């Protein structure tokens, strides 16, 4: 059952909850989840990065959500996450007991307006996000030592990726924004195999998300077989994807690299496109969505829970290795920016669709 | 190092961890035996439980399951003739043929022992991951990965059956099934008919289940008796030890082939098993028994597939690139326990690495021993009226298929492929090449695309490519040379000649209408695919065209040949095939019923039909047995945390 929710209704509900909350909010929140269980739907297979992150968060949510519900991670793979998200759209009730935990693999098709998408991500309510940074690095054989050398490599640059409309999109947009002369080979079946091709010397530009970068690439950097160039960046206080990635304060963001190369901050549709896709991929990399029409009360519960998890010393200790040490972002820090990124202007959407069609032969 | 090896043993030999290893083994064995539920199903079902234990125990549990899957699925392959994966297809072909000759114990015994050796070889290569295996993985570039897949497919297509045209048609059809879904080289979805279900392509368990298990099940229910038409004595184990010892070097060589298979992501066991099988064939002087029950075929295949699933862990542990789907889940478990795979982990926590090596080795040996112990009991099942076993088996298959995406598409795909499998079986078209073509189509396309993109055409001169290519070329040259020598010597190869003429004639017992319908269906599918394919982007056309164009020509040839035969000899009617039609219809109706009234109600009807209609049980026993089976089926769904398919018209909700 799906209750169509209109703006005034939400507002009224919010007011009601707020009014009632003045008196009884703590008591209501106290036992909201007592005796209940939460199904955290992961639209990917077991063992993937999203599954691992969901399992990592599971005990912390159980510990800090009021009433200590049982949290069950449930995988619904298929269609590059589209099937699971479609299922969620059709079946999840706005009662806070079903959460969709997913990545840009779900939001990119939505932003690009693909046919198979039956879910309305922008209408859903984000409960929390976990940033999922990424670092772009090159082979030392390219002679590139810093971003300034990107336009004067010793050998042709070749990048290995999966598919233009998938998680490669923000990086490809960054390459486009920086006007790099680089050959793109798409068709690897994961970031791991793409990294192996880099290690074998078949490609010489690669990027990895934070957990894989920490466990695999850091050693290569120490051994001198990889040179880190830049990170995707994170959304700063001004809402722009210009700040440095919190896990990699030493690496410049794409924004900074553009500024360094061109002498002025990036702007225009190329930047807007990178910002929209980059924000959902990196800053809101893993986001938990609640169904459309979820009452504010539940959002509020998550807001407090996330603050408690971030303050949990156990979380701080274990998150370093497991997920790159990012704090969880509460709904208040996510909702507006994410909603903006999920609904780019028609100009940006057209730019993306045209770029994908012309340069990467992707027809949506 | 020795100290680490011993301290790892110390870590593993804690009661709780040994128990976990053992529990994982048992789960792995059961899932290996159940048709269609292989390693992925076993580890994904165990996954929630490992979080209740400490890291070492949890990993031991998964390793226990992974290590014995290919050991215990020998039982199903041999006794039922239904392989759980393309990697067990040679075992099913040779082993099942042996079982029909009353030599099931020989096939099973050699299969178990070869699996054990394969597992131990895998454990050995894991223990030298850093100095030896790691550099080997990095030495295999994209071109070598492509060649490996290509060689595997060539072997599978050329070695099955006597009728080469039909075998190749089947392989082409497999490629056609395999290219459904997203194209790796261009942003095209192929043959998905607007269904998001097909965007990821068909899933392997469903294809394997549909093509083999459903068809075998129908045949057995219809025949009304047990799996074996007359009581098959298992025979004595002694022969199998003897035969194992005779094939020991073959098994070792096959295990080495299998180890390399583990280094090749996505292609792995499907290719390496067939390469090992081909190696067995080329290293055996008398090749006539291949396809009709050659024990060396079983020995090589089982040695290779078990070595592969273990050596899949090498790229997993060293590069966090899983070599196969079960290894992918294991990788997730490693992350969850705070182990971050990479060269650093392997060198910094040697205890963990050797714990894994020990777990695998121990599970391989114990798994084989347990298989020996339980086989006599399972063999007794082959004498029970099959309709009784069919009921739980069909429900397990439905549950196994449904765990794919938990949509009705899974059921529909299972039944459609089951219908295809039944047609092919009754038309005498080999199904193993379909399975192999299906599995290898995508990785081959992907590796070929990447290879030409990265290397241009220089890849053809890479030493690794040449070495792997020699695997195809050398046996071919040797064969030609041998034939030439024979001709020069004037020796007439009568054996081959008579066999060839026998292959030309219509195989007895195949219904000519079924053959006609099947070939016609395949021709139409190829023809339609050809038209559809022309609308794709050039890069998305390459692999489909490699399957479709020869497939269309071959199927037209086979179709024409069949029409000529019918005209010349008249129609032949196979009573066996006709007798199976009501069962086929029943199972298709079950699918329709599931769609309309949901799994919970439709299954009641299915049980009534199978137990009372087919097995002719008495009401009271049928009620008791049916209730047990029903409860087990519901339990399976609960264990897998799935809601059974719901009906569109009405639905019976379960009280829980």
Describe this structure in words.
The complex is a heterodimer of chains A (364) and B (656). Chain A is of the alpha/beta class and 364 residues long. Chain A folds into two domains: 7-131 and 284-347, D-Maltodextrin-Binding Protein, domain 2 (3-Layer(aba) Sandwich); 134-280, 3-Layer(aba) Sandwich (D-Maltodextrin-Binding Protein, domain 2), CATH 3.40.190.10. In chain A, 46% of the residues lie in helices and 15% in strands. In chain A, strands 2-1-3-10-4-11 form a six-stranded mixed beta sheet, with helices on both faces. A three-stranded antiparallel beta sheet of chain A has the order 8-5-9. In chain A, helix 1 (7-30) crosses helix 10, helix 9 packs across helix 12 (331-342) and helix 9 (268-283) packs across helix 13. The longest helix of chain A is centred in the N-terminal third of the chain and has 24 residues, at 7-30. In chain A, 54% of the residues are buried. Chain B is mainly α and 656 residues long. Chain B has a domain at 2-384 and 431-483. Chain B is built from 27 helices and two strands. Chain B has helices spanning 2-12, 15-33, 39-50, 55-80, 89-100, 104-127, 129-139, 142-159, 164-178, 204-223, 238-246, 248-263, 268-282, 295-311, 313-319, 325-336, 343-348, 350-381, 386-402, 408-427, 432-455, 463-489, 494-504, 512-533, 538-569, 575-614, 619-639, and strands at 181-182, 189-190. Chain B has a two-stranded antiparallel sheet with strand order 1-2. In chain B, strand 1 and strand 2 (189-190) form a beta hairpin. In chain B, helix 12 packs parallel to helix 14 (295-311). Chain B is globular and about 70 Å long. Chain B starts with a helix and ends in a 17-residue tail after the last helix. The interface between A and B is large, with 56 and 54 residues.
